[in-house]
Amino acid sequence: MKNLKTNTTIFTIILVFGLSLISCKENNREQDTISGNQEILTQGEDTSTRTYRAQISSINAGANGNRNVTGNVTLEVQGDQLHITVEASGLEPDMMHLQHLHGLKEGNGISCPDPSADNNNDGLVDITEAYDVAGVTMIPFHNNPPNMEVDTQTYPTADENGNISYKQTVDLNELRNSFNERFDWEELDFSKFTYLIHGVEENAVPETVNSVKGLPPHVTLPVGCGQLSED
Ligand SMILES: [Cu+2]
Fold first, then answer.
1. pLDDT, average across residues 20-33
2. What pTM was computed for the model?
3. How far is the CA of 39 from the centre of ligand 1 (A)?
């Protein structure tokens, strides 16, 4: 009799424990459904992608082994993220190439430099001459654009055929904050920039070529440029 009572008590305990487990599971399932719905809503907001593109054309091919630099830049703004893609070819092989968005605070009126930008008539448009037309160095495309550091070793390196393929996703708020801090320019409008890629072989530049930021002239000589516009 005593045994039967003990057995019944144990059975009841197991039953209650089992039922509470099932109810826990149901709750979790309900929560899963709720967060699933939230995900769908967030994805809905993200569909408003703004896309900016630039087609890269060659500058200073004479100092770049007569290679024409070509390629494409794509910037996709998706929610709080900026997806950057650069595909370029015709670059000095096995060399790291500086690349940036260039601009002027006053905004409009910048363009890619043509040979008429060569103020000192040495046959090359160096970085200081390009600044007047295409704007100054602003946003670096290396492994961490929001840090705004220009002199780093983290830009892409061209392969043995002179191609680069660069992809980076950036937190747009972080980029906007550091951009505003550095340039005191409230608006970060990607249609108001030019894209420049730089760098030729060390011996390819004459002494008349000027540079900026303490960098060697062959590193900053522009070789490709594209003007960004929104789709
Ligand atoms: Cu640049």
1. 42
2. 0.80
3. 39
